[in-house]
Amino acid sequence: MKPFSVLINILLLALIAACSTENKPSHKEPVTKEDLGELLFSDPILSQNNQISCASCHIPEYAFSDTSALSKGVDGKLGTRNTPSAMNQNARSFFFHDGRAETLEQQAAGPIENPVEMALPVGEAVKKLNKNEAYISYFKKIYNKRPDRESVLDAIAAFERTLETSNSPFDRYMRDDTNAISASAKRGQQIFNVKGKCFDCHFGPDFTGDEFKNIGLYNGNDLKDAGRYEITKDRADIGKFKVPGLRNIAVTGPYMHNGMFKTLQEVIDYYDTPQKFVHGSINVDTLLSKPLNLTQQDKQDLLEFLNALTDDRFKAAVQKRNS
Ligand code: HEC
Ligand code: HEC
Predict the structure, then answer these.
(1) pLDDT in tens, 182-211
(2) Alpha-carbon span 214 to 204, nearest angstrom
(3) What is the pLDDT of residues 299-321, one digit of tens each?
(4) How far is ligand 1, taken at its centre, from the CA of residue 98, in Å?
(5) Which of 218, 239, 269, 322 has the lowest CB atom count within 10 Å?
(6) Does the beta carbon of 287 lie inside 6 Å of ligand 2?
(7) How many other C-beta atoms are found inside a 10 Å radius of the C-beta of residue 202?
């Protein structure tokens, strides 16, 4: 064969390959509502410009959180709050940093309609799904009806309820594998529970009691997000935010409602002496009124403990974040 015809052949083969992948759906056909929810979660069809999906901000590799302080929505628009992990939500009774949604179904409508996230009324998103033959057939099989608001939100929430993690070194330690965490992490657990007072707010299987607390990140000056107060208008709630769970915390940074701390070291330094970082905090919880006086060793141990709360499946992400 002449070089020219070899080239033509290669081009033809490439074309055939491209066409056949185009005809094959890039996903497995969903069988359960959880599968369907997973498909919707990563499909930009739910956004105004067909470019942003839930997974754009809740990146599966990083425990369904984002690696930047603020996430980009449609047309690169930025919101004002950090993207939390969408994992381990099963036992939660409030969603969003200010707890303004009470169910995952209700929550899911929020980002679709938010003008700086996906910017599409849910009704419009449903209309788009009703023009898509594949989705129509999936919804008919799974819900016995065409896509509607209820089934779309139900499927997304059902998928999110599968996102539970329970295989961290700390979980194995709690299941009697005494060597699953280091001596340093064991000391760190003590600091977490006693000297650091972390356990007073971060407790239970997911390290949150689902309460709203003020750790000093509101001063009405450079820190203006009043958190829970925006929802309740109760002055006692000024500066309170939902206590977040701490599972997979090593891969979900930046941290806090506004992503102001990049690393867990910074978070620990903050809790040690909050007043050094934020001036004029309003309505701070009394647990944070005195410096903790943590030693360098205490801080290192606490960090080891927090790292041990991260599921094995995110090992690769931990390495990427540390490099
Ligand atoms: C542009 C980025 C972005 C997109 C797209 C996005 N989210 Fe979020 N998500 C966020 C941010 C930021 C918050 C916190 C907002 C707040 O507290 O006001 C959040 C909060 C959440 C929470 C609450 C977690 C908690 O701890 O309370 C869940 C669950 C969630 N999103 C699921 C979804 C789903 C489902 C979709 C798609 C339908 C989605 N998100 C799309 C950025 C995004
Ligand atoms: C008074 C209750 C309280 C105490 C005590 C407390 N926390 Fe928190 N923690 C919170 C709240 C509320 C937030 C969320 C604040 C925000 O979003 O602005 C938070 C956020 C965090 C975050 C960031 C989570 C994320 O996903 O962004 C980490 C990590 C953390 N705390 C660890 C600790 C450690 C370690 C200690 C002990 C040294 C501790 N906390 C003590 C209430 C508390």
Answers:
(1) 999 999 999 999 999 999 999 999 999 999
(2) 19
(3) 999 999 999 999 999 999 998 88
(4) 12
(5) 322
(6) yes
(7) 22
